[in-house]
Amino acid sequence: MELNPILTVNDLHFSYPTRPVLEGVDLSLHRGEVVSLLGPNGCGKSTLIRIMLRLLRAHRGEVWLNHKSIHNYSHKEIASHIAYIPQYHNVPFNYSVLEMVMMGRISKLGLFAVPSANDRDIAFESLSRIGIDHLSERPFGQLSGGQKQMVLLARALTQEVDTFIMDEPVSGLDYGNQIRLLELIAQLSSQGYTFLKTTHYPDHALMVSSRVVVMNHGKIVADGSPDDVITSPMIRQVYDIDADLITHNRRIWCIPTFSRGLR
Question: Tell me, what's the pLDDT at 134?
């Protein structure tokens, strides 16, 4: 792993009109990492990501992309370095899967440029890498949630960047699609891609992360290897529940402890 970070967050503070959200957040993302950002609802995870992408402006602090302030980049320039993959969503027009993926070329071409045959080839190659090229002519709106999320990941690959930020990528997906998406993240990370993803699931962080960052009440409360960070005391502190960490087949699993009488 290189010493110089891709993204650096220094002393970020942010408040909405009725409440503070981020209070002195420091974070860095290095090439080749899979970083899982854990924390309860409302702790500031999504707000932090929006600031990192220059979709919001912090009240204090700074975000650096390759040692340059994020505010010295246009949104198009940011998209030439980082791909943002939101939770799967519907679109108002009936685009095909291939058309959705080709939208990843906008950061290279401009909003009104006409894609070339080479752009189409790049988009189709991304679909093939994800394993969904057979869906290329399907309407995006008719896909399942898991398929839509795979399409958004293929669109990110079509941007030809190697850093991805994902906001709760498994939200709304069934169990099988959750695991398939995590396996795909692990596969791409082994090829040198970098991921920062928010998640509500300690088990998912244990499965694929090289590093886990935990937020609570707008602050970073833990940052380190998954085995060191995800512990029973941390689960108690952050989520206010009891959980045991067990090892099965050389993998650590987080098992919540139900109250007496629950089955």
Answer: 93
Q: Which uninterrupted H or E stretch holds 124?
A: helix 117-130
- Each residue of 43-54: pLDDT tens digit? 999 999 999 999
CA distances from 220 to 21, 25, 115, 194, 200 (A): 12, 6, 42, 20, 15
Q: What is the pTM of this model?
A: 0.88
Which H or E run contains 252?
strand 251-256
Domains of the chain listed by start with CATH number: 1-82+161-263 (3.40.50.300), 90-160 (no CATH)
Kindly report, residue by residue over 150-166, the tens digit of the pLDDT. Answer: 898 999 999 999 899 99
Q: Tell me the C-alpha distance between 147 and 142, whole Å.
A: 10
- Provide DSSP, 36-76: EEE--TTSSHHHHHHHHTTSS--SEEEEEETTEEGGGS-HH
Comparing CA positions, the residue from 52, 77, 76, 48 lying closest to residue 63 is 52
- Pairing state of beta strands 34-38 and 194-199? parallel
Instruction: Measure the CA–CA gap between 167 and 49, rounded to whole angstroms.
Output: 8
Q: Give ∠ CA 159-34-177 in degrees, rounded to 5.
A: 75
Q: Cα dist. 231→203, 213, 217 in Å?
A: 11, 13, 19
Percent of the chain with pLDDT over 90: 62
- How many other CB atoms are there within 10 angstroms of residue 25's CB atom? 23
Backbone angles phi, psi at 133, to 5 degrees: -65, -25
Q: At which residue do the structure tokens 């980049």 appear?
A: 73
